[in-house]
Every structure is written in structure tokens, then in C-alpha cells.
Amino acid sequence: MNCDASVSRSLRKLFHASLSATLLALVGLVLAACIPLPPDFGSPQPFPCDRFGESLWQEFNLGVDSPDDLITTVIKLWGFDREHLRINDVHDSDNPGIGWSDNISSGLGATYSSTFRDGQLKLISFWWTLPEPALTQVIECLGPPDYYSAAFGSTQEARSLDLNFWYTEKGFVVKGLASSQLAGGKLPEAITPDFRMDLFMVLPTGLEQMAYSRDFGSPKNGPYVCFLKPWPGSIEAIKIEDSLFDPCNDSTSD
Predict the structure, then answer these.
(1) What stretch of H or E contains 179?
(2) How far apart are CA 203 and CA 213, in angstroms?
(3) What does each C-alpha distance from 203 to 62, 150, 183 come to in angstroms?
(4) Residue 156's pLDDT band (boundaries 50, 70, 90)?
């Protein structure tokens, strides 16, 4: 047996195995840098309070503004030309979908959309570009919410954990969604201070009007908000339901 040849083959195999492992590791690092972190993963990054845009939303008249009113206000506040807005009125000119985007240097660093009903502004939603605020940063900037909901959900593809903070006097809902697809197949069993919130909604103020704007109930039948719980006093005391409407079932059985 030629020992030199055998040793040479073994070294080549070891080299190729090592090279493959190194390449896989490098690919993993590149992908990790490109894929957004899940809402409950990683240390919070600085998030200035003005990225919530509280002063901006005072310029809109939710429940009253027409599409033209919204366009005029956005152009004034953001300094856009009309061409920068995305306006979809193909199906319903009275209730168009109007959207726009900015970056941190020109605004909140977000993508925005608006929803109209009967020609009146029902809802403005926006999604932050990274970084997103952690739960503690939301509370530091906006204070504790009046109500919250926290529940697991599932689809054929993944399980999720959905957390919503309702600020009824401000007309804000701040939402965070963790998906098992982005969390390595495992969801947190409790809400922690670094849980990421990724969606902000601006609605007419008051619990009933906020519920109607989010299609939880109607003026005819009243608001459907039995799934909401008063703020428990701390993040650690937040209770996660197995399903969003479990508290409604409990209240019905009492």
C-alpha cells in the first residue's frame, strides 16, 4: 500500500470538508445579515421617540378626512410631490388606497398605507424599516397602553404570537408579531421586554371608534372588544391566550 498516496487523499478530503464547512458558515453569515430578525430576537437598538410620529398624526382628522384631505396633508408634512404617492383608485374612487414611504432622514423611516370607508379616513398604518422598537421602548415613548391583547395563532405554514397595545386616548394601536418560521420553529412562552413591535396604526380616538375602524363590531351592534384586557401593570404580567377570542368565551360562560 502506498502510504504517501493514502495520506494525501485523506488530507484532500479533510481540506475539502473544512472548506465546505467554512463556505457554509460564510453563507450563513451573509444570509443572517440580509434577513430581518424576528420580533422577539436580538438586543434592542436605539429607537428615538420621534419615530412614533405623535405630532404628525395630530395633523390628520381620522374619521373625517377625505382622500384629497389626506393627500394635501401628506404633501405638506413630508414635502412630497403628488407623484411620490401611490394612489390606487381603480376599484373605488371614493375609497382609494393611498400609500407613501420615507427614510429616517426624511421622516419616520417607514412605509405607510391608508384606508377609507364611505369616503372618510378610517385608518393609517405604517411599518418601520429596521430597527424596530422593542416593547420597553414603546412604553418609554408612549407610556403603558390602556388595553392589550396577546394570543397565539396558527396557519398551515407556521404558528405566531400576536401582541397589540391599544392607546384609546391617543387613537394608536402598536402591534408585534412573532412567527415560528423566523424564530427557528419556537415561539416565546412569555412576553419579554425585548419583544419587537413592527406595526403602528392611527385611528379615531376612543375605544368604540377604534374598534369600528378595525372592524371589531359596528355602530349598529356595538363594539366587539371582549378580547382586550386592561393593562396589568407590567410586561411580566401580560397573559398570552391560546386564541385571540378565548377571553370572549370566558366572559360568555360567566
Answers:
(1) strand 172-179
(2) 7
(3) 6, 20, 30
(4) low
Say whether 123 sits in a helix, a strand or coil: strand
Match 385571540 to its residue by C-alpha cell.
244
Q: Is 122 helix (H, G, I), strand (E, B) or coil?
A: strand
At which residue does the C-alpha cell 412573532 appear?
178
Q: Give the type of residue at 49.
A: C
Running DSSP on this structure, what letter comes out for residue 93? T
Q: What is this structure's pTM?
A: 0.78
Q: Please say if the pLDDT value at position 19 is more than 70.
A: no
Query: What are the pLDDT digits (tens) for 214-239?
Result: 989 888 888 899 999 999 999 999 99
Structure confidence at residue 106 as a pLDDT band (50, 70, 90): confident
H/E element holding 161? strand 159-167
Give yes or no for a contact between 189 and 168, defined as CB atoms under 8 angstroms apart.
no
Burial class (CB in 10 A: 0-12, 13-18, 19+), 124: buried
Q: Is the pLDDT of residue 6 over 60?
A: no
